[in-house]
Design a protein that fits this description.
single chain; alpha+beta; 2 domains; binds zinc ion
Length: 323
């Protein structure tokens, strides 16, 4: 696909835990140590073709549009919780509403933080988890195409269910969760006032971030992670863009709520969109205080380390300051 410059495209994964392994570290393992890639190359090629097709199709259908923004800041703790630090997570859902100039709905873009892992470990079927049900509600009620990007979902923002909940109950809950979140998105959509937006500015920066994780370094050297990690550094990318008064940024992994809140403090748009797992997945993005806290032992094993996160936040500050 050569129609669009690659740096003008931003890919985000919803991070469903019921999807194929696109990273390579979720294949067969001895204990916690993977020894064989979980990536299926045929699937990866097919997926990339589908993405290219989607971009191409969207581009061929472009049209003048009116855009509006709104947030839903209602308490969602009946559905979504932070199991590491109860009550501390970003409950704000940000929504971008796109209408045609004739007033017909085109798209609803929703940004909210929650791990799509409701179906948990005994599910063997591929599933988009709650995101599917969110899309269904949004599309039925607005008539627009629903798009979703996850937020600061790391360590550990997830559905409000005890670990031991059986799969049958989870299948019921996943619908309820998606419907509830979809309904919050619809209520924000209804508040958004689409209008002509002045100015779309996009900035991005590729840079090297410190990488301090021996286990992941080893796994990369086994060839399970198909990317270059050398001399304690890993190359990644950040995007920041404005559409009218709204501001969007990407973070290249799974920010913990504290990192998400820091990132939002560095932003100055009226409505803020924080896209986690944006254009990259460097695992959990955590601060020094988390690294030193035994409660975050698991997250630390799948993280580039807090020095990498500081480098990311410094780059983000530069990009958002530049306007
Ligand atoms: Zn995760």
């Amino acid at each position: 696909m050569r129609e669009v410059a690659p740096e003008r495209l931003v890919f985000c994964s919803t991070h469903t835990h019921s999807g194929p392994d696109t990273m390579g570290i979720w294949g067969p393992a001895v204990g916690e140590a993977p020894y064989k890639t979980g990536r299926d190359h045929e699937y990866m090629e097919w997926m990339m073709e589908q993405i290219a097709l989607g971009v191409s199709r969207a581009r061929s259908r472009k049209q003048p549009a009116l855009i509006g923004f709104a947030e839903n800041a209602e308490d969602k703790s009946e559905w979504v919780i932070n199991i590491r630090e109860p009550g501390y997570h970003d409950q704000t859902m940000s929504v971008m509403r796109v209408d045609g100039v004739d007033g017909r709905p085109i798209a609803c873009f929703t940004n909210f933080a929650c791990h799509p892992e409701t179906l948990w470990e005994h599910n063997t079927l591929i599933s988009p988890d709650y995101v599917h049900h969110l899309h269904k509600v949004v599309e039925e009620k607005t008539g627009a195409v629903s798009v979703f990007a996850n937020g600061a979902l790391g360590g550990m923002v997830t559905m409000s269910l005890p670990d031991e909940t059986p799969l049958a109950e989870r299948r019921v809950f996943v619908k309820k969760l998606g419907k509830a979140l979809g309904q919050f998105a619809v209520s924000a959509w209804e508040k958004a006032k689409p209008g002509v937006v002045e100015g779309i500015v996009h900035r991005h920066e590729r840079f090297f971030a410190p990488f301090a994780n021996k286990q992941l370094f080893f796994v990369a050297h086994l060839g399970l992670i198909e990317r270059e990690i050398k001399r304690g550094k890993v190359e990644t990318v950040l995007h920041a863009w404005r559409i009218g008064a709204a501001q969007f940024v990407t973070l290249p992994g799974e920010p913990l709520p504290a990192v998400g809140f820091r990132a939002k403090e560095l932003m100055n748009g009226k409505t803020k969109f924080l896209l986690g797992l944006g254009d990259d997945e460097l695992g959990y993005l955590m601060m020094k205080k988390h690294e030193d806290d035994p409660k975050y032992h698991y997250e630390r094993t799948v993280s580039i380390g807090s020095a990498g996160v500081e480098a990311i936040l410094q780059t983000l500050a530069r990009l958002t300051k530049a306007g």
